[in-house]
Amino acid sequence: MTIKTPDWVKNAVFYQIFPDRFAIGSQTPKGHWQASSLEGWDATPTLQGYKGGNLWGVIEKLDYLKDLGITAIYFTPIFQSASNHRYHTHDYYQIDPMLGGNVAFQALIEAAHQKDIKVILDGVFNHASRGFFFFNDILENGPYSPWLDWFKIHGWPLSAYDGSKPANYEGWLDNRALPVFNHDNEQAREYIMQVGEYWIHQGIDGWRLDVPEEIKTPGFWQEFRTRIKAINPEAYIVGEIWFDASEWLDGTQFDGVMNYMFAVPTIAFVAGDRFRRECSQFHYHPYPGISAEEYASKIKNLLHLYPWEIQLTQLNLLDSHDTARLITSLGGDQKSVELATILLFTFPGAPSIFYGDEVGLIGAKDPDSRRGFPRQEKWDLEVLNYHRKLISLRNQYPALRTGNYQILSAEDSVYVFARSLEQETIIVAINTDSDAQRVNFSTSGLQSTPSHLLYGDAQISWQSVEEQNYLELTIPPQSGLIIG
Amino acid sequence: MTIKTPDWVKNAVFYQIFPDRFAIGSQTPKGHWQASSLEGWDATPTLQGYKGGNLWGVIEKLDYLKDLGITAIYFTPIFQSASNHRYHTHDYYQIDPMLGGNVAFQALIEAAHQKDIKVILDGVFNHASRGFFFFNDILENGPYSPWLDWFKIHGWPLSAYDGSKPANYEGWLDNRALPVFNHDNEQAREYIMQVGEYWIHQGIDGWRLDVPEEIKTPGFWQEFRTRIKAINPEAYIVGEIWFDASEWLDGTQFDGVMNYMFAVPTIAFVAGDRFRRECSQFHYHPYPGISAEEYASKIKNLLHLYPWEIQLTQLNLLDSHDTARLITSLGGDQKSVELATILLFTFPGAPSIFYGDEVGLIGAKDPDSRRGFPRQEKWDLEVLNYHRKLISLRNQYPALRTGNYQILSAEDSVYVFARSLEQETIIVAINTDSDAQRVNFSTSGLQSTPSHLLYGDAQISWQSVEEQNYLELTIPPQSGLIIG
Question: Which positions carry the signal peptide feature in this UniProt record (chains A, B) (predicted)?
Fold first, then answer.
């Protein structure tokens, strides 16, 4: 089987938006329901408070994103949901009214596409919510409900809101707020398939799938892919799998996964032991620190784990709404964050920025990682500038996007690799040590000897001995280079 | 102010459909969710069981309704709702999936309109349900909800499903399943107004308003009327008010109400003391029996209560989903039911048949009054035939629809009145006694002396004495006449 993934993703720079926290539109049309009370935009986020971000606000920010070099947005859920993160879907066919409803969404899709920005949505298909119609009917009618088979009911009565009694139905992670679909029921399965199709018809460019490994019904994701790609062969399907996703990345299911397997060793390498263990999460525990050799080994393994066509459409990231922000996890160590970001933007697969990371927004684990996007006066312009620079380089040099990946040197604190595409070769070097480091290595296999410093500060020296090229680099403390 | 009500209603014959119980489509398109379990169609209805009627089934029955002479359908609620009667609205913008969803509804509207059958929907705007999004958000987020002002919250925590603790919010009739909107909140009010407008735009011909007297916000129904009539001046707005509705029938709010004030004396007159008191309900208590004189007095009062333009667009009925079926309330006394039905079809205002009454369907109070519409082999053809005949007469003679109403005689068990329009005069006579009765009275004011027996069996004799016409009728026991 020939594996085929969307070309646009290979060249994309994603921006992950948590819609309640990114932007509030300066104007909202009639019929946009005004919340009677909202949490302050700059107040510390709470588990249940809403801050009132909406899609009208995102539309107003598209120029900012375009200017930053963003080519695609991944929205955490935007369907009608009685939770600020909207992972508790109430209605899969409605955009949340606080976000502006379906009207705002259509305006957003049009505006984004006009600017050549793609949009993918978060599909939460493992579980719904207590208010979701078909489950709500079971709550209301008990054994009389005609939709019993849509969920996993174990007995009567159900106790949806009173934790002192048995729930009597399956909730995801035993959370009563998240009744789990019975995917073995043909009706529920078909319902989800149709939701998937509907929004592709409405113009979205792909789906990010929430906890897809929880759905174990044979053929479920294969059918999903087939039906989605039948409508738009270039639709992107990316799963939230934090670990080895070989099972799902065989070309018949997802185009990629959220690449936490890239994030973890990358952070462990650049940050050493700076990562605060209380910021770890699920499979995201980048400690203890690792050497360049260990990093090289992990990256090699990762790049061998899935087919190259899939590698190019992985969704690479350093943090997300599900983790603490990296700057906070690293105790404010800005240099390490910058090094990780260099590695992010030079890795095969689409880099994804968690909204606000590019202006230095901080935040510990959920809900703190979901703060309101800061006002301009609060931006860290140095952080913004290196993001601009890295995005710009990635967008400028095809080799950084789809070029092959060759490790040139990995010793102690210094890691060097090349990305090569046709005549273009880009060399990336990272020194995580607090002292400057000099490294010298042969570059066999490289067709050229790039020596133009695109990013960072270094001494670059090429030597040729017996038809073998050697590159000597002197890299300042905790810094990274891109040479092209 | 000139009061204006829809002309089509003055000439309409309504048929009230309880959608879960009328008909199941023989075919349903893909995407119609098949219930995993349903109550048997002919089984005694339970409070919570669904029988699975749908709008595809109604479409297949339109020819039957057309043939019967029906010109308008009043649907009890069809919006998405986790209850078989669907008065617990979950989503005001979706037709219930079991009914076929919005797709089936659009097909129904088109098919009905092609047959010149109007469609009005039941608008339940006093309260919503626990699953309704804006209330569900309050259940999910408590004081953090941005929609608190949409409902009437009294304290925390809410207890929506556990009756042993205070609900802490207002439910209609203290029913926790029915959270009452805060109509004083501009947002909630606007939301309801937009729902009203939306479905008029979708092609419905009017609204039946559930418990509208409960909404006491000044100007609410005036605004509703203004906005609905702005879209379709001929839209019908009929309130569910069981008692003196003068307050709402001033021409600025409703075109009419469900005319239980007609039903009650009519039943008390035709049935004498046969009405079973356990079948009474709210303001619907047609006992003790009354004489023709008392009936005449009550009808006169009723006809003086509201302007004539309103009288012509009242929604007249004998029973409904909210009462026992008349045949059952009267212990199976078919003759009395027929007499009441004659009075129904000869009264000013639009008569409304509760589905199944026309084929003799029985049923005690809710939920028993909501049985599955019987298979043809179970129909009482005698009942069906007199319905056909009465509907046909009403549709044939404009005087029965919009003619003035003049009581000619009311003594003991015999009640006689005339409906006159221009040159057309129709005389209706009812004898409730178990013996035949002879009556003789002057018909001053009548411009003609009709003597053709359109309905019933009688001896008719006109006499003229000193330029005064006298009509003598001999009416068989418990029977009615229509003379034209």
Answer: none
The H-assigned helical ranges of B162-314 are 186-201, 220-231, 260-271, 292-305, 308-311
Least CB–CB distance from A82: residue in B38, B136, B159: B136
Query: Catalytic pick from B20, B210, B223, B357?
Result: B210
What gap in Å lies between CA B477 and CA A191, rounded to an integer? Answer: 60
Rg of chain B (C-alpha set) = 23
Q: Are residues A265 and A375 in the same domain?
A: yes
pLDDT tens digits for A424-460? 999 999 999 999 999 999 998 898 999 999 999 999 9
Which of B141, B151, B176 to mutate against chain A (most A CBs within 10 Å)?
A: B141
Chain A segment 150-189 residues within 8 A of B by beta carbon are: 150, 159-162, 177, 185, 187
Q: What is the structure's pLDDT at A289?
A: 96
Would you say residue A347 lies in a domain? yes
- Chain A residues with CB under 8 Å of B198 CB are none
Tokens of A416: 């060097």
- Residue A168 within a domain: no
Looking at the structure of chain A, the number of domains it has is 2
Q: Which of B31, B90, B144 is opposite residue A46, by nearest beta carbon?
A: B144
Residue A58 sits at the vertex; the CA angle it makes with A52 and A61, to the nearest 5 degrees, is 125
Which candidate from A80, A83, A141 shows the least CB-CB separation from B48? A141
Pair (A383, A316) in one structural domain: yes
Instruction: Quote the CA–CA distance of A196 and A206 in Å, as a whole number.
Output: 9
Is A135 contained in some domain? no
List CB contacts (< 8 A) between A367 and chain B.
none
Q: Are B280 and B340 within one domain? A: yes
Q: How far apart are CA B45 and CA B37, in angstroms?
A: 14
> How far apart (Å, rounded) are the C-alpha atoms in residues A87 and A19?
12
Is A31 in Cβ contact with B194 (below 8 Å)?
yes
- Rg for chain A, CA atoms, rounded: 23
Q: Do B131 and A147 touch (CB under 8 A)?
A: no
As a whole number of angstroms, the distance between CA A9 and CA A314 comes to: 8
Which residue's entry shows tokens 């089987």?
A: A1
Model ipTM?
0.95
* Domain extent for B443: 402-483
Q: What is the CATH number of the domain that holds A418?
A: 2.60.40.1180
Q: Is B240 a catalytic residue?
A: yes
Measured CA angle at B394 (ends B390, B397), to 5 deg: 130
B233 burial type by CB count under 10 A (0-12 exposed, 13-18 middle, 19+ buried): exposed
In this structure, the answer to whether residues B381 and B412 fall within a common structural domain is: no
Do B259 and B187 fall within a single domain?
yes
What confidence tens digit (pLDDT) does each residue in B231-241 have? Answer: 999 999 999 99
Closest CA to A372 of A2, A57, A12: A57
pLDDT tens digit string along A158-168? 999 999 999 99
Q: What is the distance between the alpha carbons of residues A349 and A9, in angstroms, rounded to a whole number? A: 8
